[in-house]
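HUMAN: Now follow token order:
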Amino acid sequence: MRETPHALGFRMPAEWEPHEATWIAWPHNRTDWPGRFPPIPWVFAEIVRKLASVERVRILVQSPALENQARRMLEKVGANLDAVEFVQRETDRAWTRDYCPLFVKNAAGETALTAWRFNAWAKYDDFNEDASIPNFLGTHLNLPLFIPKMVLEGGSIDVNGQGLLLTTEECLLSPVQARNPELSRGKIERRLGDYLGVTRVIWLKHGIPGDDTNGHIDDLARFVNPTTVVLCDAADPSDAATLRSAGLKVVKLPMPRPLWFDGRQLPASYANFYIANGLVLVPTFNDPSDRAALTTLARLFPGREVVGINCTELVWGLGALHCMTQQQPA
């Protein structure tokens, strides 16, 4: 039996640890933003402009024509193209958080990939291109690839880099949009430990209203340092007690007012922020609570610039900043 990453000394670093790059996929699937697609590439361009000022941005792009379009847009917004790499590869959607591999590191500084299975949140049929990305990146980056044989999206977990992992029962244990119906809670915990190097899994109850992933943690609760978690107002009342019993400090994060479009509630949450080198990008929603959320996060990330990105268009695709990014550790 092949040794697991944990047995070989690998662990998943926390998001605030130094990055070599951020992976995104340039948007092309218009069905993800029905009737509202035209502004979406401009939102991506603004996000790349911010990220490229602090770290490398690697962009999966569908075709040479789309790469040319993306380059023109990035030039217009003044992005540092020297820090941008395009990688030609077909994808189904732009949500790299959930289908890209999760990177792990060891004490010697070596990096490897964990290639979790992706089944489009047990909800969509078109996911074969996305599901092939971990193997493709293993070859492209020439890094070791570990295959856990379990469905897992990056947005369903959050780690502190020191052994703790947050997730929700709704996402990983529910029979609705079931990811791994054959695996018990104990087996899931062991798989997470073996492949991500975590020693304790903290289970919160359920995700936020409007979340079509059925309970992703990255809209609900996030580590901001090894001992502190921000928790959204939409959380189950027992979640704060669960976190405190694990020895964690809990800071409340407001929720924007419910955002609706075309009859459905959207998963608008300030917790869907992304931590880059020297920078935190935070979704905003033209809401009175935007300022309070930015102030709270600025206090929690004193060494980083905290910047709001208007995500009222982006979230119509049922995701925001964390969903469309995946960090590659330095």
About this structure: The two ends are 29 Å apart (CA to CA).
